[in-house]
Amino acid sequence: MKYKKLAFAFAIATVSLSALNNMAQAETHAPVAASAEALPPEITGQEKELDLFRSSLRMEKWKFVKQAMALNGEEEKKFLSQYNQYEADLKKLNDKRVAIIKDYTANFEKMNNKKAGELVKRFFEFRKQRNMLLEKYYGKIAKATSKVIGARFLQVESILQGTVDVAIGSEIPLMSK
Does 177 map to a domain? Predict the structure, then answer.
């Protein structure tokens, strides 16, 4: 039970710097609502809490990004046209990370070589996809604005992602020998 609660804490930390979707996208969860009836109340409540927390943190992230990017009105408009899609794609990718963390915590006490190898493979795939996503959106943002703005986007996102990686890594218990 202790590790299942940790999974939700890690999920919150993971997502804290993820997707900045518009509020309609962030609050619309029709498929979850349909399946939520079958879940135990404790899990349903935790998922709702996580969704609310993610939404709140997306707003905080946007404030940070906006301040760090320091764009004028026209630059910001062009930047946002790409950045909002980046955030939506990053949210989907971070959902995979949350799933890896949940799988890790669910198997923590019965970890074996096969499961450890599977989790590591999924982790490397997540990292590879995240780097590819940054590269893709650097290009899109640089094309829409300038290479300097694209590079600044890359710097800001790298700082944010590094911060989250350290926070999560420092809280996940190490596998036993």
Answer: no
**From residue 159, how far is each of 36, 79, 107, 121, 174 by CA, in Å?**
35, 18, 31, 24, 24
* 86 domain-assigned: yes
Give residue-wise pLDDT tens across range 101-151. 999 999 999 999 999 999 999 999 999 999 999 999 999 999 999 999 999
- pLDDT tens per residue, range 11-45: 444 444 343 333 223 323 333 333 334 445 555 67
Amino acid at 23: M
Nearest to 26 by CA among 43, 48, 51, 45: 51
Structural domain includes residue 46: yes
Print the domain residue range for 139: 2-171
- Report the sign of the C-alpha dihedral through residues 64, 65, 70, 75, in that order: negative
SS3 of residue 173 by DSSP: coil
Residues present in the chain in total: 177
Residue with tokens 């518009």: 22
